[in-house]
Amino acid sequence: MKLKLKEKLKNLKEKLKLKEFFKKFYKSKYFSLVLWIISMFLSFVMAELFNTNNIFSMSFLRILFNMIIIFIMNIFFYSIINSIRISSILSSTVIFILSIANYIIYCFRGTPLDPLDILSIETGFSVASTYKLTINSFFIFAFIIYALIIFICCKIKYRPEKKKYNIISRISFAIVSICFIFVCFNTSFMNIFDLATHLWKPKTEYTKNGFLASFLKQSVYSTQEEPENYSLDNLSKIAKKYTKKEENEKIETTETSTNANNENNITEKKPNIIIIMNESFSDMSVHRKLKTNEEYLPYFNSLIKKTISGHVHSSVYGGKTPNAEWEFLTNNSMAFLAYGNIPYQQYISQPSTSLVSTLESQGYTSYAIHPYYGSGYRRTNVYPLFGFDYFYTLEDMEDDLEFIRQYASDLSTYKELIKLFEAKKDDELFFNFTVTMQNHSGYDFEPYEPTITLTDIPNCPRAEQYLSVIKESDNALKYLIDYFEKVEEPTIILFFGDHQPPYLEQEYWDYLNELKTDSLEDDEKGYLTPYFIWANYDIDKKEHQTDDISLNYLSSLLLDVAELEKTPYMHFLDDIKEELPVITGHGYMDNTGTYHTLDEQNEYSEMLEQYKMFQYNHLFDTKNTLEEFFSVTK
Questions:
Q1: Under 8 Å between Cβ of 417 and 396
Q2: What confidence tens digit (pLDDT) does each residue in 284-343 have?
Q3: Res. 551: pLDDT tops 50
Q4: Would you give the DSSP letter of residue 411?
Q5: CA 28, CA 22: separation in Å to the nearest integer?
Q6: Residue 103: which of 139, 155, 157, 132 has the closest Cα?
Q7: Residue 534: helix, strand or coil by DSSP?
Q8: What are the CA-CA distances from residue 172 to residues 86, 165, 168, 176, 186 (Å)?
Q9: Closest Cα partner for 390 from 378, 402, 380, 401?
Q10: CA angle 294–296–297, rounded 5-degree value
Q11: What does the pLDDT look like over 572-597, one tens digit per residue?
């Protein structure tokens, strides 16, 4: 009996010791360290679930880099807060917020979150109500993982007791964090981890690298440095050649015009210029012919047969409309800015030459129309700096606009444009730049009854809504052209889409891409939108017909058709265009139709480098900008 009692007491003591051991271990730094590592790894898993990514498809180096980023975030917050538990919760919450933002933006726009989207948050909120979020299994599991991370972090109990040791460690962690950021932004450190670059398909890049690695990579490359061989003297020499060329052409044009006027005893009038950049307007048949219950672009397709027309190659897909505007209005290219840059929000802070100033120097009065909030992408700041005399927004026209879904219709927008035209003075040269809103995503708006249905792809209500509003654009376009056909004053209309639509069903894209290959040529199809140049008088279609053109060249082509003066910069780009008819933010096409990546070294590299340096001079080196090169001399 006594032996059994002693044995029980012994077992009890052992259990108490074991319990005491676990109690101490539970409060020890070792247990907290294990929980901390688990929470960091789960933060990585959570980010990739929101990125709809399979972590098992990623290379070890790329996973390691994502984990390093999470570790740096944790120790940085710890250096400030002095709590492993709170710093872990804070770090995982920041990752959670960024990751869910990435998920939402990809669902809505079709491209991942980049650092500069933060600058567009006001614009994003203004259109958020028109979207519906798709919840899938990745989204649900990511939420569960986040909840698990918070639970694990709450179990972290350890706090260093020695104040001296604690202060030293926190200072060390702060220094390591700062050094990491410095090294990433100022060295080629990230190259060690073999991070992928895929500008044609940003989502592919985020999938291969991981969300956090790609987000940091975009942050690093969003900074703008002076080109390596940048030289004002060299640029001045090149610019001088084109400045002289412009002066000689101006003399020849004046003499020819004077002789013609003397012979015919008439005075030629410059044409009115109307430019319509139509939101998300595209012909999706560039991917594959669609079968629908009726044709969705009947008037447009009949019109382009009689006009100068072709495909515009855009630098953007699914969003960031102001980048399309910026390329068109300035002749600059997103090719020389980092992916995700938005010049309207980052760089335009003082008066700058543009198509607006080029036309105003030739006697035009300039009007801009955007039937939405003028604050979006800082247009109310940027447009006056470009030189627009008047800018009309939703706030100015709301009472006179009609709406399709939640956006001003193209038809009512064109009616406002016509009102401005009819109110102008008789001798006034009219220049208008209109950015429409009718076709803006998302395409889940209710109630809206689509008129176009897909006959060979079932259950694609978003795609059908998109095609139906495009049909509305087609009808409105007919109204606009019919009106200006009857106008006596010579008038030119340039019409183009800014980018293809985002946020359509995967089944729709699967059908369109069924015959697609992995070639750059096929990737580029996602960046094509149609354009045409129409006039209510005879223009030489044969001379100016251009099948493929990028937005940085399009305004120059317009001035050629209108027989107006161009800047030396435009003449410089004309020479580049002969070799490279397409240059965009994700690559370029040479005159043989071959596509190239931006980092490819070849016979075009020097030409592109010159272009890049002139753009840097125009956009960044504002104290030394070669004004004569970017302007038409009065």
A1: no
A2: 888 888 888 999 999 999 999 999 999 999 998 877 888 999 999 999 999 998 777 888
A3: yes
A4: H
A5: 9
A6: 139
A7: strand
A8: 19, 11, 6, 6, 21
A9: 380
A10: 130
A11: 999 999 999 999 988 999 999 999 99
